[in-house]
Write a structure and sequence with these properties.
seven-stranded mixed sheet, D-Maltodextrin-Binding Protein, domain 2, 280 residues, 2 domains, alpha+beta
Length: 280
């Protein structure tokens, strides 16, 4: 990674995300009105508050570096494709979970360089947990005053303990079930937002397959965490790492989050993809 992101910048970024998280938590606890976007997805006061706060934070930290947020106005690809470095933000990832009161939502900030998420901060205000990953610097989990380095875990050997496969709370069943049916003995864990990817990063889960639409801001920050922890967020069809800002739309292909490649889950993935009609 370049020398762009200094320790002081990283510390200021994290403190700013935490401060925004506290504001979001106030809205979450006192109640809010739910609006609907054009695609019928929910939007709340907290989404817009976090968008404004995080955008201002990043513009003050790195003047001149573009900021692209889920709540920003669309930026034409003819402009975006020239960005070698930019911030990618999901002010609240898991707005459905925010609205439903599960607490399984997060604030996501990623630094993208040449299409690669090289730094990611994922903060879950209700859980009081944050994950930070930086290319070449490793990944950490922070909870209160506690901080520890994290790494993905090796897949359990044949006949050992069951695998743990995490799935989406809002977008489950179907191809996820098809995938799991072809796996060795396993347990399923349901979770919302980018927290799913972070569970793989910290070695609490082994796999997270995702079939169907997500956007780059949904995954970039957590992808940086997973990568820094030794794992991968891979295109389900090519098994190459996801890249950002490579096309006109900002949609991800189907993908899988893993600690390591293994023919057992790759065969299960092939079985699920045989029924998958989604293309980004």
């Amino acid at each position: 990674m370049s020398e762009f992101m200094t320790r002081d910048m990283r510390d200021a970024l994290f403190e700013g995300v935490l401060a925004t998280g506290r504001e979001v938590l106030e809205v979450y606890r006192r109640g809010f009105v739910v609006q609907r976007k054009a695609d019928n997805s929910p939007l709340t006061e907290a989404d817009l508050l976090a968008h404004r706060s995080l955008t201002a934070l990043l513009e003050s930290l790195a003047p001149g570096v573009p900021v692209l947020s889920e709540e920003s106005q669309a930026v034409d690809y003819d402009i975006r494709r020239h960005w070698q470095r930019y911030w990618l933000v999901d002010p609240i990832d898991g707005t459905r979970e925010f609205v439903d009161g599960t607490g399984e939502f997060s604030l996501n900030v990623a630094l993208i360089e040449s299409g690669v998420p090289v730094l990611g901060v994922v903060h879950a205000p209700v859980l009081g947990v944050s994950w930070i990953g930086q290319q070449g610097q490793g990944a950490v989990r922070l909870e209160g005053e506690q901080q520890r380095s994290i790494q993905v875990r090796p897949l359990p050997a044949r006949g050992a303990m069951p695998w743990t496969v995490v799935g989406s709370r809002s977008h489950s069943a179907g191809l996820f079930d098809t995938f799991c049916e072809s796996l060795p003995p396993h347990e399923r864990l349901v979770m919302g937002s980018s927290i799913k990817l972070c569970l793989v990063a910290e070695g609490e889960a082994d796999l997270y397959p995702r079939f169907g639409p997500t956007c780059e801001w949904d995954t970039a920050a957590a992808q940086a965490v997973v990568s820094a922890a030794g794992g991968g967020v891979l295109n389900a069809r090519t098994l190459e790492p996801l890249r950002c800002n490579q096309q006109d739309n900002l949609l991800n292909p189907s993908f899988i989050v893993c600690g390591q490649r293994d023919e057992r889950w790759e065969l299960a993935l092939s079985a699920a993809l045989a029924h998958d009609t989604y293309r980004a």
